[in-house]
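Hello Y.,

Per our agreement to keep a running log of every chain we model this quarter, I'm adding this entry. I've kept the format consistent with earlier entries: sequence first, then predicted structure.
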Amino acid sequence: MTDVCTAYPFALAAQDVVPIVFAGAGYYYLTQRIEASIPEAGPATKAASVILVVGSIVAGPGRKVLVTLSDGSECYPYLQLPFFAALAPGFAILTWGAVSVIKGRKVNFWPYLGLLVVGVSAAVGTEKRVLLLATGGTWAVAFAVSAGLIAKRSGDLPAMALYAVNAVGTLALPVIGGKDDVSSLKYQWLAQGINTVSQAAFGYASYRLLSAFRRQDKSSTVEIAT
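Predicted structure for the entry above:
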């Protein structure tokens, strides 16, 4: 017998694109900032950003549209796999890049890989999706904290506060996801609203960091030239 899923309104699927756009912009700005200081970290952090965005599109608005077109008769759970698979490694790589900026050099990736393998292995071994989400969420918060430390070093307290908003929003989503009726429209809209605010804060904070760095770099170049 085929499982019956919640048929989402197209407005919900369309709105699900908004936080992905904000997040994608934030990844772009922040990876540009990382590459400007640590060129070696550029390719890996950009690749991590791409897999996170693609996974989010497939698991989010893409799946919602297909479920709605089937009137809830098909759940398409496998479309969530790209997002679950990308979450932990994507944010682990981005955290590594951000920490490299803080340290002023490309730090060793092996400790990050070790922690990543432990978390993912525990999730796969126990066959509990919640552990995989928890591992990815932990890395996402670590990334937000690391980005906040870059903002602190730059003296950009508003950006630091925005990254804190992003971290809080990231922590709030698993709480909503643990509800028994998480598929209800009420919780779906709540989760998407929190995610939208969280990713908007992340995107604007990352824009501020890159803009401030470029202004400082340009100013330094002008001073040297004169």
